[in-house]
Amino acid sequence: MGTLPDMTKHRGFPSGMPGTGVQFTIRRANPKGVTPIKKLPRRARPGSQEHRIDAAFLHALWHYFGAEPFERGNLDAARLNLLFGREVVAVDKDFDPTSYEAMLVINEQLARESFPESFEDVMEV
Q: Could you give the C-alpha distances from 64 to 35, 61, 105, in angstroms and in order?
C-alpha cells in the first residue's frame, strides 16, 4: 500500500449534514488519487433539500474560515464542486484542482446573493 498524500484535517469543521448522510469532509486522502475540484452544474432550487445542503455547507465554510483564504484539505470535493467557480473560487491563478493544498476563498458578494441564510449566526437545518 502506497503512502497517501498529506491532507490538512480541518478540526472542528462539521463532518456532514445531519440526518441526510451527506458528508462535508473526508476521513482520509483518496488512495486512487485526489478527486479534482471543478465547477459542476447546480440544479438545486431554493427550498429544496439539495439547496439546503449547499447552504449548510457554505454556512460551515463561512463560520469556520470567514473571508480568509483556506486550504482544501479534507473538505469533500463533491460539495465543493457544487459551489466552485461561483461562491467558492481559487485563490491562485496556478490553482491545482488535484491538490489537497489548493487554496480557496469564499466569493462573499455572490455567496450572500445565492445563499443569504448561510451568513446567519445560526442556520436551521
A: 22, 5, 12
